[in-house]
Amino acid sequence: MKMKDNIIGGKNTLGSARIFSKFAFLIFIGISSSVFGRLQKIDTLKLSRQHYEELFLKQNLLLLAETYKINQAEAMVLQAKLWPNPSLTVEEINLWSTNKQLSYLDEPLPQVFGKVAQNTQFAVQLEQQIITAGKRKKLMAIESVGVKVAEQEFEELLRNLKYEFRNTLTELQYLQLYTEVFFKQRDLIQNLLNAYKRQLENDHISKGDYMRLQTLQLELSKEINELSKAKNETEKELKVLLSITGPVSLYVQEDDFTPNLPKLQNLDVLNLQQELFTYRPDLKLAELENEHFKSLLTYEKSQAIPDINLNSSYDRGGGIWPSFFGFGLSIDLPVFNRNQGAISYAQFGIENTNILSNDMRLRAQAEFDQHFKDFQTALMFYESIHSDFETDLDEIFESYTRNFVSRNISLLQYLDFQEAYLENKRIILESKKEIHLQLEKLQYTIGKEI
Question: What structural domains does the chain harbor?
Fold first, then answer.
């Protein structure tokens, strides 16, 4: 299984599911003990996006469980290699014999072992089924496809979980940064209120202006409360994906929230289109389903050829000879059942999966076209925001605050600009968030890291 190449963020996924499944439990126990030990000592876990993702790949329980499905599929290949067991039958045993019965014997039946089974009739038969037409290899081929399916299902799960995890991480990072903006504003208003309270006591300002600032502080606190609840909900989802329990808070370092524009501006749409049908696990699963029915058709055709049962038997005292050894064989005659239904089922399965596979490819192409356009739209909007705009916005707001304290501008002017400041801060953060979301959607559509 090509985990490193086929999955978004491949270098931190798993080298192969087989190796992972053998050591995953030990890794999980070791990593979990280490991380949980640290979490008991700290209130907040502060990591970068990359380190959170490494933790996710090592600790997610669904990924750990999915690897065992690959082991199950490999076990079925092993089972298909095995020959049927021989069958041993012991029958026609007379547990006792009367004098009248013994009188019919020309001579008594001797013991078998020591004094055991004297004058006792029994029959023993040993039978072995011989599988014909290469059915065993054909069944192994079917089960081998099952291994590939299990591997691709693992990658599909990993693809879906990564998409969910990264978007949740982006949402948490956005909420943290946006909440910090409101915290700074609330602290600023609190300082203004402290200064205005003294001026109010000295009748230098009106009580209406003071109440307006108090109202603004209450509005900011309410917004912080709503953002905190949303952040808590997002943290809950992230903890489940990280398999983290306890009251610890999660904090995503903001260094990597700003998009890397030079890298994103150089994406080649033609190369991405060529990779579309190479890496997506769901498309590979559709192809594997078709391969499964082709292998199944070959197997079902071989089922029309009957197997042979070879047997050898020993009969003691049951015929004209006191001891009789015989050999034989049995074979089903394919008169009524030539496996016609199962063969037709496999043939229809091939046709069905061909159509569904083509439909999935068309849908994947359409998804790519849409998501690439959405990504370009988000990128162009972010590029339209001047690189120094946020810095200039902060500086101007500080200037407005100084002028308001010096009474060079009115309270109404200050509040109008503050509202515009908060709105522009939200737009800037949302534009960065949208870049992350659209990039993840594009990577999810292609099935690999861009």
Answer: 3-83+131-304+339-446 (1.20.1600.10), 84-130+305-332 (no CATH)
